[in-house]
Amino acid sequence: MDKLIIEGGLPLRGRVRVSGSKNAALPILFASILLDTPVTYSNVPNLRDIHTTLKLLNILGLETSFENGQATVSPGQTLNPEAPYDLVKTMRASVLCLGPLLARLGEGRVALPGGCAIGARPVNLHLTALEKMGARFDLDSGYIAGKTSGLHGAKIVFDQVTVGGTENLLMAAALAEGETILENAAREPEVVDLANFLIACGAKITGHGTPVIKIEGVTSLHGCDYSIMSDRIEAGTYLVAAAMTGGELILDNCPCDAMDAVFSKLREMGLVIDERADGLSVRRGGELTCVDVTTMPYPGFPTDMQAQVMALMCVSSGAGTIRETIFENRFMHVSELVRMGAKIQVSSRNAFVHGVPRLTGAPVMASDLRASASLVVAGLAAHGTTEVQRIYHLDRGYEAMEVKLQSVGARIKRAKE
């Protein structure tokens, strides 16, 4: 198992290229199940979750290849309806193969998902919606076993906004008979990217990016060449890293149109963020100040940036409150930041952060993907040495993070625990 060793206190300066979005790439890769002909994807990040997804597609009967940010997926001779536990347990997004399998094969058997332990992400929202389209489900030895004699259009109103549920239903409805209407649908840019990909393959979808999406089912979908959107969370993480270290970075390939809420809050804290012809630049405009943050579904402030902004508030002046409304167990990084000298108190879904002059390096342990990122950016700003353990979480969502940070002046290296 690897760890990162960070000698903090150096300002980051230079250029960083933002990789393709993991959260967009995973559902789009699973949408390959729906296609009759090969598809080629570009701007695909080289991440553990991507390789897990490609391996799962192989098990399901598709042929895949991946090299230099480009993935190709081709239909196999026959599709296998079962996504086994050994793979699904490592990546919660695996449940996104359920809708495509039902639409293409009429059946799907998917192990109950695993992934980061940040709280409940109820799969029942997916299943209830798919049942309205004609699917039937049983729980069999830890597997969700679904069957249908043919999916049909339906009006579906989600009880709560669900990104995964919206994505699963988008894919299922693309090949269903008739019109499907999704109300209270997720509006995230990654959902829009999936819809745009399906449209490029021949799907009939309108309203993506709004709370009401309409899908008119078609009989078949074809492959295409498609570029995955860039990762807004990775971009936001590097903005925080620049601010925490008092440096200045230029981000290439940054999805600025998808980052209004993050830009707004970071500017409120004292960052200068400029969209320029040669990239997005970020630096401190003076003393950083704490703010109040509430995580919300898009277009609100993303829960995936909560931990990183908390780390930034730890070294800002004043005090602020972070309210987490998406996941009930997403403050597990707090105890590790406190080990580094942060002043944070947690009450239910609220974290009260009091800024301190500086953090001190310490051995810390990552509990999930975004917690890992918060500990890395904290280590970059801390006085002394920080060791971030269990970085396999980090490798699920950040492509070559230590390499990118080294290129802009960080003293960071990977080592065996």
Give a verbal description of the structure:
The structure is a single chain. The longest helix has 14 residues, at 232-245. By secondary structure, this protein is α/β, with parallel strands linked by helices. It has a 4-stranded mixed sheet. The N and C termini lie close together (6 Å). Helix 1 (22-30) packs parallel to helix 2 (48-59), helix 8 (232-245) runs parallel beside helix 10 and helix 10 (306-314) packs parallel to helix 12 (369-381). 51% of the residues are buried. It folds into 2 domains: 2-17 and 230-416, Enolpyruvate transferase domain (UDP-n-acetylglucosamine1-carboxyvinyl-transferase, Chain, Alpha-beta prism); 25-227, UDP-n-acetylglucosamine1-carboxyvinyl-transferase, Chain (Alpha-beta prism). The chain is 31% helix and 26% strand.
Please give a handful of descriptors for the protein shown.
417 residues, alpha/beta, UDP-n-acetylglucosamine1-carboxyvinyl-transferase, Chain, 2 domains, four-stranded mixed β-sheet
Helix content: 25-40%
Number of strands: 24
Shape: elongated
What CATH architecture of the largest domain would you give?
Answer: Alpha-beta prism
List the helices and strands and how they pair.
Elements: E1 2-7, E2 13-17, H1 22-30, E3 39-42, H2 48-59, E4 63-67, E5 70-74, E6 82-83, H3 85-88, H4 98-105, E7 107-111, H5 124-132, E8 136-140, E9 143-147, E10 155-157, H6 163-174, E11 179-183, H7 189-200, E12 204-206, E13 212-216, E14 225-227, H8 232-245, E15 248-252, H9 260-269, E16 271-276, E17 279-284, E18 293-294, H10 306-314, E19 319-323, H11 334-339, E20 343-347, E21 350-354, E22 363-365, H12 369-381, E23 385-389, H13 392-395, H14 401-407, E24 411-416
